Fold this sequence. Notes:
The protein starts with 15 loop residues before the first strand and ends with a helix. Residues 1-6 have low confidence and may be disordered. A hairpin with a 3-residue loop joins strand 3 and strand 4 (47-49). Strands 2, 3, 4, 5, 6, 7 and 8 form a 7-stranded mixed sheet that branches. A two-stranded antiparallel ribbon has the order 1-9. It has 3 helices and 9 strands. It is an alpha+beta fold. One zinc ion binds next to loops.
Amino acid sequence: MPKHSSNTLDPRSPLVLDTRDLPRRPGVSRTVERVAPAPADLGVELISVPEGADLDLDLRMTSVSEGVLVTGTVSGPVRGECGRCLREIDDTVTVTVQELYAYEDSTTDATTEEDEVGRLQGDLIDLEPEVRDALVLTLPTNPTCREDCPGLCPDCGTPLDELPADHSHQQIDPRWAGLSQLTRKEE
Ligand SMILES: [Zn+2]
Ligand SMILES: [Zn+2]
């Protein structure tokens, strides 16, 4: 039952690993160091690796009896927006990769699902899903420019850390003053 989508991978694609030079003898390994342009939508809604940015791959492929183990790190720049003050976040992220890719028609191939254990497609490994998953798990869903970012003044929208401690809006209608203090206490 051929469930593989063979021959869809491009061996020249920078996020595809070619194992042809890796002997299928357990324990043999090869290092892969390269820079790959980031594919689109790599990350989460508020913070992601910009498309085309340099992803540094620092990986090792090791033959195991049922396939190829890929371990190492992938790092790259991330850009996003602070969820509290909306300022731009410019950072870097490094994710650890550790994934077994089973040979087609190996016992592992026959006894596991593709979402449990990856698959080689011929001699090729598609690294993109693993890099994508690792990044999505690593990147915060609510990114902040720094841990204690105080956010924006609710009245004028200025970042609070750019304002003096006694910043206030005196022109508030006195009938609302009590209410606005209540709101602030809740925060
Ligand atoms: Zn912030
Ligand atoms: Zn203000």
